[in-house]
Structure formats: C-alpha cells, structure tokens
C-alpha cells in the first residue's frame, strides 16, 4: 500500500451518492498550497471539497472536517456500524477495514487521508469467511468479529502475495495464522473458533 | 482533537514550502502515532501536511551494494522486500516484530523513525512529564517502570525508545537523508536520536522544517547473517522489554565481525559499542558473549520496576549471538 502505487478509484457510473452538507467556506489559500484540502473557488476563496470514496462498491461523496476519523465517518455518516470502536488506539483491531484490499485500523486513520480510495467494511465483504465464522463458532459476543473477518480477508491476500511473518513457517500453519491475526484481540477468547474458521477457508482456497 | 488545516502536497518542494511557512505544522505519514497523540491532546498541530502523496516510496539499489529506502515505504512493504530479507534480515525481522499487520500496512519509514515514547505518563495529561511539559517533573521516576529504559537515561526522563526498526538501523549504521528549503543533510542514525539529558523534549536532530526523504543502508556483508530477537510480555503485538539486533562473523573460532544494538533498554535505539569492542577478535563462545553483554549493561541505571532488564538483556544478547554462531558452524 505504498503511496505512489496506491490505485486511486474513480467514481463508477451514476456518480457519487451525496452525503454532503452544503459546502461551507473554510480554510484559506496561502503559500501556494491548499489548506483544509480545499480548492480555490472562482471568488478566490477556498472551499472544502467533498471527500470521494468508494465504500462497499458504491461511490460516496462526503463533507467531512479534516479531523474526522475514518471509523467515525463510516459509522456516523454512512451508517456502517460493522467496524467497531474498541480502543481507539490501534491496539485491538475491532475497527479493521480494507482499503484497496489492504487491512488497516480505521480508528487511527483520518478520513481525508483516504480520499479517492476504495473502502470495504464487513458489510461489503462478500467472502466465505463470514459463513465460516458462524459455522465454527468464531465468536461469542461478536464485538470483535467484523474486525476479525476484515483482517482475515486481508491476511489471506497478504499470505497469497508472499508477505512474510515472524513465524516463517512452511505453509499457513496454526502458528502462522495466530501471528498474522495477532492484531485482532477477542475479549471473549473465541480464538479457537476464529482459528478454525480461518484455517478452514484457507484450506479450501488451497484446494 | 484540536481542529487543524489539512494539506496534501503532490511534490516535495510544495511540502517543504508549506512546513517552512505554516507555524505549528506537522508532517503526517501513516498517522498511527501522530493521530493517536493528537487524539490524546499530546500533539496539537495547527496544520497537518500529509506527505503520503509524495514520490518517496521506492527502495533503490546503491552502486556499492547498499539500499536507499524512501521515507514513505510502508513498514510491511519494506519487511517483504527480497533485497532487505537477503542482505539485512535483521531489519525485516525487526519490522515484522513491531506493532500489528494492520499498523505495519499504514506505518511509514519516516514515521517509524520519529515515533514517540510509549511511557504511560507521557500519554496521561494528568501526570507530570518533562518531555510533554519541560520542567513539570517526571512521574515515571517513582512510578511503574517495567517498560522504561536503563541505558542513556537521565534524572529528567527514563523513557525507552519504542521502535524495533530503529534498533536494526542503529546496528546497520543507517544514514537518514533529510531536506528543507535550506537544503539537504545526511544524519548518521547514531546522531539522529538524542539522549534526554536535561531536555527530554528534544528527541531528534531533525529541525521542525526538515522532511525525512530517505534512509540509506550502507553495504554490509556481515549483515547477511543477522537476526532480531524480541522479548516481550506476550508472544506478539507488544512493545519490547528487551530486543537485540545482531550480526556475527566468526573466523577460526574468533569473532571477525560483529554488529549489536538493543531495544527496550535504551533512551534511544542503543548501539552496543562496548559489547562489540569486547567481542571483536576474541573467542566466539558463550563465556565471551556473556562478558561482552555484561560490559554493555555495566552502565545501566535501574529502578526497582526495571532492574530485571540487565539480566534479561544479558541473557538475550548471549542467546542471540550463540544462535548466530551456531548458524555459522552449520554453514
Ligand atoms: C497499538 C500499537 C502498537 C505498536 N507496537 C509497536 C511495536 O511493537 N514496535 C514498534 O516499533 N512500533 C510499534 N508501534 C508504533 C508504530 O510502529 C508507529 O506508530 C509507526 O511506525 C509510525 O509511523 P507512521 O507513518 O504511522 O507515523 P505518523 O504517525 O504519521 O508520524 C509519526 C511522526 O513522524 C513525523 N513524520 C512522519 N513522516 C515524516 C517524514 N517523512 N519526515 C518528517 N517527519 C515525519 C510526524 O510528523 C509525526 O511526528 C505501535 C503502534 C501502535 C498504535
Ligand atoms: S520518563 Fe520521560 S516521558 Fe515518561 S513521564 Fe518521565 S519525562 Fe515523561
Ligand atoms: S478501535 Fe481501532 S484498533 Fe481498537
Ligand atoms: S467475540 Fe466477544 S470480543 Fe471477540
């Protein structure tokens, strides 16, 4: 997910769905750089442009403050309550979402950093892992589950792409899965079911 | 979070102009440390300059066999780079030992170099902290110090440097390339991070208007046989109590080349020069490894809560060197 090679997603047909409040005049234009990620309007003032993201396949256009977090934006502006706020410190993984297929923690992300990107939350993650978590009892209270599932999807594609881990085993062993999923905590301790669900899907992928 | 203006320049010159002219501006990499500290109110920038659009995300070969790593290369991408894994395995291992996969996908090399301490009193606005508020005192001195440093500390601050990546960079003699509107500079890693002394608020040699553009790794054949070992309170996803980055070359039973650096114990990423000196030319055996480790830890200043770190660091250094020596034997 290195900056220069991040695929930037264009709006699909039909144009962005509009969640924007009327664009407020904010920020200013100084020193040849745009403040508040603004664009200079005809009147010479800077207006905050809309943030455009594709979320779970649909183009969205959002009016957010620079300090709005990505997690809050997904939950409060788009009603996507799958991603959870566990710690808001990057420490639990409950807020994990996929950006252009790469897993990140959305609680330490500002929404403006992800302008032009494609976000997938558990709601849009159409993947056999969702059903496998149910089948293997990969949850008790379910609070960590959306983050676990998004993280596992990202993990499987990292593994397929040859990304190393500190376990460095041959194949996706249980120890490998545990290490590669160590960014997601489960207060209920449903780890055995989580592991089984992921191992099951990984084995089916391998066949 | 305190409101701020956000800019995302597309080229380095625009980023440098912005930081030179906007008072209270800060660069933003992956955001995993800065956004966290802004939310806690520890960092309060007026302008945030998002540098992730700058074309500084390549890893390039240098003519002498070294590598030049762009400041915006993500930690996960760097750890997976086949050249890093082959020539500097300790660096790949150090990166993989840090944080979580999600955080490594976000974190940049520049941000990792500048990540701030995890001292709980530094994070807690209600606690006294000389680093956060110069002259306020230090609640850690008589507090809970399990995570704190024992080398390079002062009476003003005993915070440990938290980075795993930087420990490997210290062992490898990396050079940090920085640029501002005033020009370019190259800062050796050993001079990049500062010891706390009486001014723990000054953490690096970087000026506020300087952008990290790259990190250079000089060619270092001994590093091809190197490793990073991290000891922590759980198997993964925790900061180091003690960590060791080591490279070792043994010829005819004697140490012909060695690099050693420590994490978790130093006020900055700790190059263990006393231990290296003790090892070089001597026997490559367990007794020598322990003596060298003890020579390094002799300078430790401990508190009741972190006194265990001298024994733990000594054992971890000796074990890491032993493993490397055994690998050498095995060819
Ligand atoms: C829960 C958790 C666990 C963690 N565990 C570990 C661990 O075990 N080991 C470890 O080593 N780390 C750990 N980390 C820390 C993590 O490695 C750092 O947060 C990360 O490396 C910072 O990189 P970033 O790009 O996100 O930096 P940012 O947060 O974007 O920036 C950090 C600082 O660097 C400055 N900056 C960024 N880029 C540049 C540049 N190019 N030039 C000049 N200044 C710049 C910013 O202004 C800011 O002051 C952990 C973090 C969290 C949240
Ligand atoms: S150890 Fe350093 S960072 Fe921690 S409270 Fe003391 S002065 Fe602050
Ligand atoms: S809420 Fe984001 S990691 Fe815990
Ligand atoms: S199922 Fe309850 S936290 Fe994981």
TrEMBL record, chain A:
UniProt keyword Nucleotide-binding present: no
Gene3D superfamilies, alphabetized: 3.10.20.30, [2Fe-2S]-binding domain
One term of GO molecular function: oxidoreductase activity, acting on the aldehyde or oxo group of donors
PROSITE patterns xrefs: 2FE2S_FER_1, 2FE2S_FER_2
SUPFAM superfamilies recorded: 2Fe-2S ferredoxin-like (SSF54292), CO dehydrogenase ISP C-domain like (SSF47741)
Assigned keywords, A-Z: 2Fe-2S, Iron, Iron-sulfur, Metal-binding, Oxidoreductase
Residues of the 2Fe-2S ferredoxin-type domain: 49-125
Pathway membership: Alkaloid degradation; nicotine degradation
Protein name according to UniProt: Xanthine dehydrogenase YagT iron-sulfur-binding subunit
Automatic annotation (TrEMBL), chain B:
Xref: InterPro entries: CO_DH_flav_C, CO_DH_flav_C_dom_sf, Diverse_Substr_Oxidored, FAD-bd_PCMH, FAD-bd_PCMH-like_sf, FAD-bd_PCMH_sub1, FAD-bd_PCMH_sub2, Mopterin_DH_FAD-bd
Keywords: Oxidoreductase
Domain of life: Bacteria
Membrane found in the keyword field: no
Chain ranges of the FAD-binding PCMH-type domain: 1-222
PROSITE patterns in UniProt: FAD_PCMH (PS51387)
Gene Ontology MF terms in the entry: FAD binding; oxidoreductase activity
The protein's name in its UniProt record: Xanthine dehydrogenase YagS FAD-binding subunit
Source species: Nonomuraea maritima
Organismal lineage: Bacteria, Bacillati, Actinomycetota, Actinomycetes, Streptosporangiales
């Amino acid at each position: 997910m290195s900056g220069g090679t991040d695929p930037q997603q264009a709006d699909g047909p039909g144009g962005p769905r509009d969640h924007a409040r009327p664009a407020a005049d904010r920020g200013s234009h100084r020193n040849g750089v745009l403040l508040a990620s603004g664009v200079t309007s005809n009147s010479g003032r800077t207006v905050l442009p809309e943030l455009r993201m594709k979320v779970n396949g649909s183009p969205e256009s959002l009016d957010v403050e620079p300090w709005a977090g990505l997690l809050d934006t997904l939950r409060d502006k788009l009603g996507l309550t799958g991603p959870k706020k566990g710690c808001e410190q990057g420490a639990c993984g409950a807020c994990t979402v996929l950006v252009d297929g790469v897993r990140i923690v959305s609680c330490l992300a500002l929404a403006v950093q992800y302008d032009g990107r494609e976000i997938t939350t558990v709601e849009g993650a159409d993947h056999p892992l969702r059903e496998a978590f149910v089948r293997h009892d990969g949850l008790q209270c379910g609070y960590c589950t959306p983050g676990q599932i998004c993280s596992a999807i990202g993990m499987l594609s990292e593994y397929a792409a040859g990304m190393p881990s500190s376990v460095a085993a041959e194949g996706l062993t249980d120890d490998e899965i545990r290490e590669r999923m160590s960014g997601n905590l489960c207060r209920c301790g449903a780890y055995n079911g989580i592991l089984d669900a992921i191992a099951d899907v990984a084995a089916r992928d391998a066949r | 979070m305190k409101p701020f203006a956000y800019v995302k320049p597309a080229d380095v010159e625009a980023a440098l102009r912005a930081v030179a002219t906007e008072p209270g501006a800060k660069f933003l990499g992956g955001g995993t440390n800065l956004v966290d500290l802004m939310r806690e109110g520890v960092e309060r920038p007026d302008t945030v300059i998002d540098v992730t659009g700058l074309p500084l995300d390549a890893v390039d070969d240098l003519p002498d066999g070294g590598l030049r790593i762009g400041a915006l290369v993500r930690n996960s991408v760097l750890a997976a780079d086949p050249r890093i894994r082959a020539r500097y395995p300790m660096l790949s291992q150090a990166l993989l030992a840090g944080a979580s996969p999600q955080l490594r996908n976000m974190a940049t090399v520049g941000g990792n170099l500048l990540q701030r301490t995890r001292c709980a009193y530094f994070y807690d606005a209600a606690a006294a902290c000389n680093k956060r508020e110069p002259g306020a005192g230090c609640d850690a001195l008589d507090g809970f110090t399990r995570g704190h440093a024992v080398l390079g500390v002062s009476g003003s601050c005993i915070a440990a440097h938290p980075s795993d990546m930087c420990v490997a960079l210290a062992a490898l003699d990396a050079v940090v390339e920085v640029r501002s509107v005033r020009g370019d500079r190259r800062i050796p890693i050993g001079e990049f991070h500062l010891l706390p002394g009486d001014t723990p608020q000054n953490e690096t040699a970087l000026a506020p208007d300087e952008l990290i553009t790259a990190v250079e790794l000089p060619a270092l054949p001994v590093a091809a046989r190197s490793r990073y070992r991290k000891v922590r309170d759980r198997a993964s996803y925790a900061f180091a109590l003690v960590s060791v980055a080591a490279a070792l070359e043994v010829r005819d039973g004697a140490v012909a080349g060695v690099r050693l650096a420590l994490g978790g114990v130093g006020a900055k990423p700790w190059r263990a020069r006393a231990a290296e000196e003790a090892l070089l030319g001597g026997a490559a055996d367990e007794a020598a490894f322990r003596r060298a480790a003890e020579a390094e830890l002799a300078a430790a200043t401990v508190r009741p809560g972190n006194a265990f770190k001298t024994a733990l660091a000594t054992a971890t250094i000796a074990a890491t060197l032993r493993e490397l020596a055994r690998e050498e034997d095995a060819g």
